[in-house]
Amino acid sequence: MGMRFSRAAAVEAVKNRLFELVAQVVDRAQQSGQLRADLTLEDLALVTWANSRILQAGRAAGVPDVWRRHLGLLLDGFRADRAHPLPQPPLSPRQVHRAMLTLGRRSAGDTYEHPATASSSPATTATTRRSRTSPKNEGSRDRDRS
To answer: Among the listed ranges 25-29, 32-36, 66-70, 122-126, which one has the minimum average pLDDT value?
Structure first.
């Protein structure tokens, strides 16, 4: 972060304070029984990422407020009275950080997938390696994205 912002210490302090405030709000809402007990701050990071992509897509499609519906659906799912057991555990802070780095690289046009986040199957590894090194695979990668 220090290389991107001239006032990195100030930005870091604000980020830390925001994190603390959000943690307090989540804790209070969980203590009051209004927010599902298993919601984590890492879950909120996923919601933010998802909603930001919907915001971009909505603008591109000419419906810039579509994110409001998506967020409303998500917030309803956070209510304690609607909670059901979740099929997966939450991400760890480290996993969230790795995901943020991966998303940042991809949004900048880098398609390299870090080995720690890639599938470990031999077929996937070989395909990923081929995709990065072979120019003749450019067309097949484009087909896979659609």
So the answer is: 122-126
Q: Which residues form the domain of 134?
A: 120-146
The whole-number pLDDT of residue 113 equals 52
Contact 132, 112 (CB under 8 A): yes
16 DSSP β-pair partners: none
79 in helix, strand or coil? strand
Around Cβ 76, how many Cβ atoms within 10 Å? 9
- Examine the domain organization and report whether 51 and 21 are in the same domain: no
Q: How many whole angstroms separate alpha carbon 126 and alpha carbon 105?
A: 21
* Cα dihedral across residues 73, 77, 78, 80: positive or negative: positive
- pLDDT tens per residue, range 59-106: 999 999 988 998 888 888 899 998 889 889 998 989 988 888 887 776
Q: What is the CA radius of gyration of the chain?
A: 19
Its pTM stands at 0.58
Domain count, the chain: 3
